[in-house]
Amino acid sequence: MGTKASSVTAAAPKGMNFTTRKRIGSAVTSVVMILVALVCAVPLWYILINTFKTIPDMSANPLGLPREWTVKNYVGAFETVPVFRSLLNTLIVTFFAVVIQVLVGALAAYGMILRKSTFTAAVGAILMVAFVVPSQTTLIPLYRMEANAHLVNTLAGLVIIYLGGAVFCYFLIVGYMRSLPFELIEAARIDGAGPLRIFWSIVMPLIRPILTTVVVFQTMGTWNDFMNANVFLSSSELRTIVLQVYNAVGQFSTDWPSFMTITVLALLPVFVFFIFCQKWIVSGLVAGSVKG
Amino acid sequence: MSATMQGSAVGDLPPLDESLYRRRRRARGLREDVTSFWFLLPILAVFVVLFLVPLVQTAYFSFTDFNGYSMDMNWVGLDNYRKVFTDPSTLQGLGFTILYAIVVMVGVTVLAIPLAVILNRKFVGRDFVRSVFFFFSVPSLAIMGMVWKYIFSPMKTGVVNSVLAAFGLGPVPWLSNNSLAKFCVIFIAIWAQIGWHATLYLAFLQAIPADLYEQATVDGANRWQQFAHITLPQLMPGIVTSTFLLMSGGLKVYDLPFTMTKGGPGYSTYTVTQSIIQQGIGQSQYGIGSALAVLFFIATGIVVFLQMGISNLISRRFE
């Protein structure tokens, strides 16, 4: 450890050439970290590799490569489980829930920075309370409310429940919005732009970094949500993909490879989404937290 | 850019007529109040429908014996609260929830910071390692719970047990033993969240100005001193964010224990949320479920504010 502490400015390394030592240090880090990452990733490997095995093959060697590769599990999964239907359900719910949440949150954030008054101060305090309310607290009355409105067991009903996330969006966005140069908005107003136009064509583009973060955050939360989907949806054709996986545990209790296959199909779209978004997520996180 | 200059130029003009100026400003203020109200209206609607009304209802039902169906309910005072505090399953749920929230918060923080520091160094394969750790946070905890159930299967075919068998060790009843089940749930929660929180810390580490370290190196500070006197204080906002997310998320935990163990064996991994759902919706004891929800709200509020206060104190000390 001590040797690694020296840096470029440290003079006259003892014994070994300095760059050589640094190189060895970095090589050790490489080997150790790649090993640690691989060990941590074993469960993901376990899910993936077993989808290509038969049941006896999986019990005989849970972690190794299949003795005989098979795609029967995938064929079977598509035949027995409405994978596409569930993915579509999840996509619909996530899309509408996230778009509306973020929009409501951004509108509120703009309304807050537009004007400082007793009214906005009161709204700020109210939203602070809402931020702390765990969704579990309101679950029972919300369930009753949706049951009365015949919204239980509909995708629209589930979307409405997720709109509570707008408060979270508001908090992330308002911090970022406060750091915007207010003169830009002032100037647009003098040029005769209406409030909605200013919001849409000036403010929204300016807060794009934080919007990306919030969208990714909420997409992750909504797509992966189990509690609300489990409580509010009951018919099989409306199941979101996470519910479908949960259901598959019972359906394929002894058929582990089939269960793993459903899991892979459920995780695949999210992984693809995140591969595309990885860069923005990290940069957005800094923007969001530092200024928020 | 020209618009900005024009704007400030107009703002600098001295008002010609004092009263006219003021009147105009008041009119504009009123107009802005109205505009601001319209922008805030959607979130106020969300607040009233999804927070205020349900909260008031929960508080009201917690004093009644409402069963969810018949409207002839009776006022029972604090009876439900008494039941909550004497019901052993609920108390166990509360105990596990608190244990889970604290251990996961500490565990993730202690492991994610060093991980982020290492991931911030240059080494071959760094991007690969970063991606692997990042991708852990992507799958839903509910799904991971189900998968880990197979991995920890008490049968010999469970992965952990088959690895142990290779070393000649007998099958361990991972999820059917009270303490082991608690350990497994917490272990997986930490495993699943380290990567995401390390990514968060990494973002903050990259924001630390490099000349701070250069200066420290010139002053002869070793790597540990640099970590303690530069990295850690500079990470304070990150630690505040991360621990806040972990704590508030931990208290609400439901997915992972539910899909892994259904709260069992017995009630050893039962959580407050599962208890609320079970009592309120599963068993139609709205009154008891509501009382529990009210207590949970108060407890979460206290913990969250305490935690915010403590984090603020600590971060001020470092400044």
Automatic annotation (TrEMBL), chain A:
Chain ranges of the ABC transmembrane type-1 domain: 87-277
Membrane topology of the entry: Multi-pass membrane protein
Bilayer-spanning residue ranges: 24-48, 87-110, 122-143, 155-177, 198-217, 256-276
Domain of life, per lineage: Bacteria
Signal peptide positions on this chain: none
PANTHER family: ABC TRANSPORTER PERMEASE PROTEIN MG189-RELATED, ABC TRANSPORTER PERMEASE PROTEIN MG189-RELATED-RELATED
Annotated protein name in UniProt: ABC transporter permease subunit
Taxonomic classification: Bacteria, Bacillati, Actinomycetota, Actinomycetes, Bifidobacteriales
TrEMBL record, chain B:
Signal peptide (UniProt feature, chain positions): none
Entry GO CC: plasma membrane
Membrane-topology descriptor: Multi-pass membrane protein
Record keywords, A-Z: Cell membrane, Membrane, Transmembrane, Transmembrane helix, Transport
ATP-binding keyword on record: no
Alphabetical list of InterPro entries matching this protein: ABC_transporter_permease, MetI-like, MetI-like_sf
Chain ranges passing through the membrane: 34-56, 98-119, 131-152, 183-204, 291-314
Stated name of the protein: ABC transporter permease subunit
Annotated source species: Bifidobacterium aerophilum
